Amino acid sequence: MRGVIVPLVTPFNEDYSLDFQALEEHIGYLEKVGVHGIFVNATTGEFTSLTKEERKLLAERGRELVNASFYLVGTASTNTFEVVELTKHAEDIGADYAVIAPPYYCPLNDEALFIHYSMIAERTDIPIILYNIPSCANPLSVSLIKKLALEYSNIAGVKETIDSISHVRDVIFEVKGERKDFKVFTGLDHHFLNTLILGGDGGIMACANFAPEIHLKLFKAFEDKKPEMFEYARKLAKLSQVYNLASSFGSAIKIAMQLRGFPVKPVLRPPYVIDGKETREKIKELLSLLELIP
């Protein structure tokens, strides 16, 4: 698995119920344009606002819809045994990977985090992508990632949603350097090219929900060693400013999707809220500047 993986938004109706029609249309579009992976129950998918039953239902429906891409399912929780249950479910339905962020809310040291991931890895066979997102959960140190990767063959990679290219560099050099098959993905659009140049495998990036063509062009230009990769990297750097314009990444992504004509409604599950007209106009201005809308 390399390239552009999309952490999918979860579409909702106005009454906050799951919008399966929009889900089907969006996955169909992403596969048509050629993304390399689709990831349900991601942070972008508001997984913390879903029940365990809804997460399983989305995972099952996604498995039915995703055909041409790698299929990833998020199985994180603050409860280790619930993570095991969700990860086994992802395995049973035929997901290619489980993506697991560390427990959030309660601060844990490296020893506790190692035990957490060890219990999951020992009870399941599905390849696991660690998810380092220190802004929302316990951070994963380079030494911990390395220890887990060398101890468990089914811990297959890491998604790095960390605004530190030096950390990503160290993971690539120190972990991937010793275990060649270990995958390293950025979670940040503006670090996509940096990660590839350092020897990483791609990106799992939220803006690919509404502008996958830029990510895909960058990846192809990089693979073909074409200088256009730098042009697309600059576009992604500018595009990633969309996160700074809204009160949450979910609001930014769903407003941008609506502006570009995607079938996903601008509805977030509480406690998140969609921003109003002022934010919408700022996002519209950014998308216009990048020629993503007229």
TrEMBL record:
Signal peptide: none annotated. Pyruvate binds at T44, I204. Keywords: Lyase, Schiff base. It is found in: Cytoplasm. GO terms for cellular component: cytoplasm. One of its GO terms (biological process) is small molecule metabolic process. The active site is at Y131 (proton donor/acceptor), K159 (schiff-base intermediate with substrate). One of its GO terms (molecular function) is 2-dehydro-3-deoxy-phosphogluconate aldolase activity. It comes from the Archaea. Its main location: cytoplasm. Pfam families: DHDPS. Homotetramer. This is Dihydrodipicolinate synthase. It comes from Thermococcus barophilus (strain DSM 11836 / MP).
